[in-house]
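Prompt: Have a read of the protein record below and flag anything odd:
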Amino acid sequence: MSATKRWSYSAGERGRNRVRVYEHANGNGMLYVEFYERDDADQAKPKRQSLGHKDQGRAKQQADEISAQFGIAPPSKRTDSTLATLFDKYDREVSLPLKGKSKQGHDRRAAKMFLGFFGANRKASSLSVTDWNRFIAARRAGSVGPSGRPVRNRQIEYDLKFLLAVLNWATVAREDGEPLLDRNPLKGLKLPREESPHRPMLSEAEEQALVQVVPDMDWRLGVAWVLCRETGHRIGAVSRLRWEDVDLDGRTVTWRAANDKKNREHVTPLTDSAVAALKQARSHSPISPWVLPSPRGCDAPVSERTLARWRRKAMDAAGLGHLRRVGFHCLRWKFASELMDEPLKVLMALGGWKDPKTVIQCYQKADPERMRQALESRNPLTQSTHPGLGLSGMAS
């Protein structure tokens, strides 16, 4: 037998000023009211109390009155934040304490670009889809941006993600108890996507040509190349490895969260080649705490910019200077593609990935040879297995 449906009535909007009156489950007909109140931490807490009567008409009137009172928003103590204010606060409270030098540099360049395009005194809440589309068109045309040249969707997406991050942060960051921004006015807008992103990988012959000239540059370049290739990790994490992160006897390396793009500490094993490269690094700089110390002094790590400069010189010396966008990151793509046959969870643990979608969409590449091998591994179609298809004249 189904339970008797008890009377209830709701007034107001959910999430704003909803009030509900209802008949208590004890069956005596007594009516109660339920609504939400915010505590000192601005958390909504449910509150229930008895109305002290059983008159449903009166209860509905009370619900409407309470809901109307909640619907009157108190005057805000905060002035509408400008873009200049938000970017400045985000830089001091997020970029500086939580991001690496490279990310900090991009954040500041992007902030300067947005301020120049929208205006420093522009109210953040006034941004609209029209502004969003205007910026995308201007960035594609090269009329806005530090280089003054047209850029592709990948770079525009990167810039807009920073703007969205600032606006999202502003909705939770508080000043005098009030959020800097009531809502993100650009939330939900579609980011431009690169239809055919250029993700080059060196062929075996090209890599061998490069490896031959690497020793002529600097020993750090050779060690960095091997570690990126053998661990699948980013050059930023490799260049900031400390000897205390390396266990040569146990053949493992700890990747610190502070040096990881996803802020995630993890441990991975080392191959024979990686161990040999690390031993070479130790012999070159036995007293430095850094695996790859700066050429200017052993008390700091080598910079990514210095490694990139050496890498470009090596590519020119190997006759590979014509290859576009071939850097250390191509070794991460190569790592993911070469281990494509391994379980995805194992690959993600080895390379430090968190999202399987990122690995599949952005890093793994099905080359023609691998596709051919996959087809040849199938059971062949023959006359004996399919006699009705007329395969007698076909090669087995």
About this structure: The chain has three domains: 8-70, 83-179, 204-373.
